[in-house]
Amino acid sequence: MKKREVQASVKDERLVQRRRDQMIKGAVSLFKEKGFHRTTTREIAKASGFSIGTLYEYIRTKEDVLYLVCDSIYEHVSERLQEDLEDMQGTLESLKYGIANYFRVIDEMQEEILVMYQEAKSLTKDALPYVLKKEIEMAAMFEKLITLCVENEELNLTNQQIKLLSHTIIVEGQMWSFRRWSLQKLYTLDEYIELQTELLFSGINGMSQVQKKSPRAL
């Protein structure tokens, strides 16, 4: 599925990206405080530091801004994970490193993550499938990391277990943002990463043992 094009009248691509980054930062705080539907484009322009006229040089609708917020989150996370993939050797330590880095990206972008999941329902019909596809692609990156460990005989998991584990990692990272009102009073980020990684690998070991005893399981 192709990336949805957000039209701009300005031709300077670097300027377009810079202005849109400003919009994203301004919009996130407004969407979090007021919600997407109660936020006006004039308010987004003001929070971004420019006029409503300037705003419409870089987008066409308020829905474009929400799409840019969602897309920027996935692009940032994917870029960071892709950097990890380039150095991965299919070891358990490399998988732990990838998980930790993913959790740290979520921590850096927790405001954006909250807004995205609260307001994704307001995306247009042509934009929502693309955003959902990006979520699947993130899980696929971890699926690749886990598969490398299986191929190197570091883990003993079925394809179904690999897929489920990859989605579990995605959700547990996002939980740091969703339930921060509670979790961040109990743990530092490093503590959360350590505990979640221990639980994940405890579960992995359990699945591996089941698989050894019953190769047809799951």
Can you describe this structure?
By secondary structure, this protein is mostly helical. Helix 4 runs antiparallel to helix 5, helix 4 packs parallel to helix 7 and helix 5 runs antiparallel to helix 7. The longest helix is centred in the middle third of the chain and has 25 residues. The radius of gyration is 20 Å and the shape is elongated. It starts with 12 loop residues before the first helix and ends in a 5-residue tail after the last helix.
What is the gist of this entry?
The protein has 218 residues and is mainly alpha-helical. The protein is 74% helix and 0% strand.
Topology of helices and strands:
Layout: H1 13-34, H2 41-48, H3 52-55, H4 62-86, H5 92-108, H6 110-119, H7 128-151, H8 159-178, H9 180-186, H10 189-213
Helix pairs in contact: 1-2, 1-4, 1-6, 4-5, 4-6, 4-7, 5-7, 5-8, 5-10, 6-8, 7-8, 8-9, 8-10
Descriptive terms for the model:
single chain, 218 residues, mainly alpha, 10 helices, 74% helix, 0% strand, elongated
